[in-house]
Amino acid sequence: MPYWSLYLEDRGFSYLEIATLMATIQLTKIVAPSVWGWLGDRTGQRVRLVRTGALVGAVCFSGVFLEPAFFGLLLVMLAFTFFWNAVLPLYEVITLQGLGRDRARYGRVRLWGSVGFVGTVAGVGAILEWVPISFLPWIVMPVFAGIAISAFLVPAERGPARSTAGADELWAILRHPAVIAFFLMNFLLQVSHGAYYTFFSIHLEQHGYGKFAIGVLWSLGVIAEIALFIVMHRLFRRFTVRQIAIAALLLTLLRWVLIAEATSLLAVLLFAQLLHAASYGALHALSVQYIHGYFGGGHHGQGQALYSGLTFGAGGAVGAWLSGFLVEGVGTDAAFWGSAVAIALGALVAWRGLKAPPEPSGLSR
């Protein structure tokens, strides 16, 4: 993600084309996780589905090496992300089921994904100081292969063959005002991240930062996320879901304003990147717990898929496209001001409607 927009820029695509292609990564999250989550709930074979998604996603990604034009690359990205985006939501469910009643320590497991991100981003940034950005697909392909191989190291599940909960119960959960507020808050959160995931690297490059520095700055944000994951279970004991959410959303608002206005000031930019602990770490850990509380009684896979699709998918795609128009018409600074507006609305939604989730036994009241 940190370097793909730079690769697309090097290929000669316009900012709107870059925004559309980057939005594709999020767009398939609207459909793919729901399909795979439903299959996981119905069959109980989530590990097998993860293996399938990882393998076929890697094969589809190889189409990038043909260096297709815009529409060809769009089809390649739609294909590989449909399978790739199936992996993480299913893994979230597998992880929480494995933790059982100790699910508050989810963050300590999830942090290893962040460790992998930090190592890869920093390493790729260093490599790209020596080789052209056009080599990026050759660097990424071994990572996809590694995901596929590691998926076969996870023991197969022995879960139930099908979900025992009905569609009426799922619909009752989705109609709950607190659940509506939760999804709307996260939708706006991901809209605000559209500029970050699509244009942050380009924004930094325009302000004179090199590829290695860009990698370090991305990594710094995730290092802060790791630190938060380690202590997140303590925050859950001291503060309510609503308090954590509102505080994290306001810190995210501050982050986007600082990036929009003070990117040239390294100390300020470093502080803004540390706030990734709030804008992603705290809110994602909180959201996984929220999904487990409301959807854990038989609709866990579908709940996780809806979270991924309606927020990361729809929100991320809308945010990427809107930021593309702002960058094309005004500049990258304006895109981050747009992010600030979106997150301010998200904070308002959380303040008005977010409530603590119940214990994960389904929502029957």
SSE topology:
Layout: H1 4-10, H2 15-43, H3 46-61, H4 70-84, H5 87-99, H6 106-128, H7 136-151, H8 167-175, H9 177-206, H10 211-238, H11 241-262, H12 266-274, H13 276-295, H14 300-329, H15 332-353
Helix pairs in contact: 1-2, 2-4, 2-9, 2-14, 3-4, 3-5, 3-7, 5-14, 6-10, 9-13, 9-14, 9-15, 10-12, 10-13, 11-12, 11-13, 11-15, 13-14, 14-15
Descriptive notes:
Residues 360-365 have low confidence and may be disordered. α2 packs antiparallel against α14 (300-329), α9 (177-206) crosses α14 (300-329) and α13 runs antiparallel to α14 (300-329). The protein has helices spanning 4-10, 15-43, 46-61, 70-84, 87-99, 106-128, 136-151, 167-175, 177-206, 211-238, 241-262, 266-274, 276-295, 300-329, 332-353. The chain has a single domain (4-353), classed as MFS general substrate transporter like domains (Growth Hormone, Chain: A, Up-down Bundle). 79% of the residues lie in helices and 0% in strands. The protein is mainly alpha-helical and 365 residues long. The protein has 15 helices and no strands.
Observed structural traits:
single chain; 365 residues; mainly alpha; Growth Hormone, Chain: A; 15 helices; globular; disordered C terminus; membrane; cell inner membrane
